[in-house]
TrEMBL record, chain A:
Bilayer disposition of the protein: Multi-pass membrane protein
Listed SUPFAM superfamilies: Cytochrome c oxidase subunit I-like
Species annotation: Methylomonas subterranea
Protein's gene: ctaD
Name of the protein this chain belongs to: Cytochrome c oxidase subunit 1
Transmembrane segments: 35-57, 77-100, 121-139, 159-188, 200-227, 260-278, 290-309, 321-341, 353-373, 393-413, 425-446, 466-489
UniProtKB/TrEMBL annotation, chain B:
Segments of this protein annotated with the region Disordered: 357-376
Gene label: coxB
Protein name, per record: Cytochrome c oxidase subunit 2
Phylogenetic classification of the source organism: Bacteria, Pseudomonadati, Pseudomonadota, Gammaproteobacteria, Methylococcales
Subcellular location as annotated: Cell membrane; Membrane
Cofactor(s) required for function per UniProt: Cu cation
Domain Cytochrome c: 276-353
Chain ranges of the Cytochrome oxidase subunit II transmembrane region profile domain: 21-116
Amino acid sequence: MSAVVAEHDDHHDHHDHGPQKGVLRWIITTNHKDIGTLYLVFALAMFFVGGTMALIIRSELFEPGLQFVDPNFFNSMTTMHALVMVFGAVMPAFVGLANWMIPMMIGAPDMALPRMNNMSFWMLVAGVLLLASTLFMEGGAPSAGWTLYPPLVLQTGKAFPFAIFSVHMLGISSIMGAINVIATIFNMRAPGMTLMKMPLFVWTWLITAFLLIAIMPVFAGAVTMLLTDRFFDTSFFDAAGGGDPVLYQHIFWFFGHPEVYVMILPTFGVASTIIPVFARKPLFGYSSMVYATGAIAFLSFIVWAHHMFTVGLPIAGELYFMYATMLIAIPTGVKVFNWTATMWKGSMTFETPMLFSIAFVVLFTMGGFTGLMMSVAPVDFQYHDTYFIVAHFHYTLVPASIFILMAAGYYWLPKWTGNMYNEKIGQLHFWLSAISVNILFFPQHFLGLAGMPRRIPDYAIQFADWNMVSSIGAFIYGFSQLLFVYIVIDTIRGGTGKVSAEVWEDASKHSLEWTVPSPAPYHTFTTPPESIPTEHF
Amino acid sequence: MKKTKQLLACLVLMALGLGTAHADYTLNLVQGVTQLSHELYDLHMLILWICVFIGIAVFGTMFYSIFHHRKSKGHQAATFHENTTVEIVWTIIPTLILVGMAIPATKAVIDLDKVQESEMSIKVTGKQWYWDYEYLDNGIHFESHLDEASEKVHRQKDGDPRTVANYLLNVDKPLVVPTKKKIRFLFTAADVIHSWWVPDLGWKKDANPGFINEAWTYVENPGVYRGQCTELCGRDHGFMPVVVIAMEQDRYDAWVKETLDKQNQAPDLAEQSRSVLMAKGESVYLKNCVACHQIDGKGISGWYPALRGSEKVTGNMDQLIGFIQAGTSKMPAFRKLPDNELAQLITYIRNAPELGNNVGDEIQPDKITPKWDDDE
């Protein structure tokens, strides 16, 4: 491969093959690896911004009584924490991984639409900055929750139109990213790589991209209706004008439920990539994994009102959305069983990526269990809008999506930088994270069942103990993530030494990225690979 | 590394210490006090145990594998990567479990929906940030606000919540219901969406502005049952609790009579001493004004104006009365505030040291003449 690149360098009439020098490289880049890096660095920065907001929340909740912040600012923090984590950290991190890895996994030279790729990233930055700027506006940042339910959200101060415009920008950015992923996967696979031979990360991202294209316009539509309700005298969500505030919730969750799968499907893909490599065994049930992902994506469109069981649905609606939601347990269960079967009779080693992946399987399954409990509509009349749901979705996001993003970081950093990360500190990072994340979120199940509503800045005395434990866990978890930043910088600077092209034992049997040198050259697969790995299906 | 271990050890000890020091927290869902809440509790436990068993099976297998099938023990990797039989089995078994869960769940959904044939109805209106209760059968109608003790503590930086009984879970006027009667609740809201939840009754229900939701309960035994608003409804969402007191029929009947008598009484316009005006004025302020204008009268910049040193408050008395009665586009009109409470409130806000005002005057209830031309 490198010989091919060198040959091209000799032709000066071809455009330059190396990166631009200086800052301009990052601003005008159309290279999938550069853009992937930009996305990943931005996501990591936003992870700490959103995390700081979470620590403000947990500080206020450390003890009963109001100690640090005004309730309105508290509500802004819960709202902004969610928006920043969802749209600024988790989604961009997976787009970053997609940019880096999809072309390398399918043997393509770059993404199909490189200029749009650049625009999509900078639109994201602009959108998130616009959102963050609302923190400094009169009346404060949006404080009606990330779901932006009317009529409450219409009481937002000057920030209101800015928050909505930022949602539009984030949506456009996501749609462009999704179109790019689909175009790349459909058009640029190496010869011989049929759809059913693609690595699962590519598969899950393909399905995620379709979800994004389907849902983002719906969300944009919903917030635009909010905008016209406030400024142009429409009454989509105002009963006084013949509208219905619950209509917004239906539209929002038609977006919102697939949206949470946008954050979890690529997570499944990475887990299905990492576990076989460290189990030294092919992934169990490749095709059932693909079908399960498709099934989950399909179901995600027809279960939205399970977020609204207490809103006053007719009984037929309650029953339908309950049954449909319970069905999700089946394909999700298949996935968990498949990962377990992949490990079964393997020859496992436990480097940091594997540790994070195993923790993902276990802790995500716990989030799945509470999800199953809440799918049962009548009992959800107790669970709904309490800390039980807070515990549930944080289990499916933090020790699931975030852990897998960390696993992906450790797994591919050697390929990206050419250097090995510090395994000892990596494992320390893992153990601190895995223990503290449970101290942080497990007690929230108890709080919710005991009757503590979510989104409250102060609480009754009987909730004091577990809130304190949870806050302690939050601080340990938050600060231990700084280790990751240290490890990334350390690895870029040399880490513990150079790595081979393959990095992990027999990894090149699983996926194409391990067949190119480490660090991956600026351009890879300018000619298609001659053969494709077969170990992963 | 050593430090981390110490930290973790501290944390575990702390968690244990906390666990033994207080016995008043709970880990599980309440069983509640109605048949419905018991049914939901049983359903909750059923699913919880199903999850525990599946968890033990899956995680047990996984950890057996993690322990035995490792390279460091010299385990050679097998090469299998599919098994149709196994895959069909682990699709069908979960499906059957789900069907088993769906049957009692369906029954519970139907039971929750049985609002028909109720013996009395109460209309509950959520407002920022209190509940408004209206007994449709006898005309009792009152507002239920967070109690004064909690109000004072959570609004003061140095307040100690542990000194207040039922901190944030107590109200000035609880909802009183009879035992052994099927009660239908009608929910709506005046401004934004709220949600009315008493865990002991087994459910919560959203109160949507412009629409009416229904739910029902049948409480077996007398008692005090507490809950909170569970739908984010703005700044003071955390400060609008629900308290339901269930009484046996005869005591309930007495309560109805007493409450109706009080409700129908004309306000007492007799002269009051200045200290009474001020003390009662504070209660009126804490109930009606503090959510926006705050306990120190400073308001919230960008949202609610300050009363401290405000021209409107300390200036012409008649204009102030008219202003409070008329309201503004942002402030509700307090036209229904009885004259005695209005006199107390006005005396308080003009003179309260907590609000930083000291005009040095007072107004008696009989001196309040309507400044608002009520055309209703």
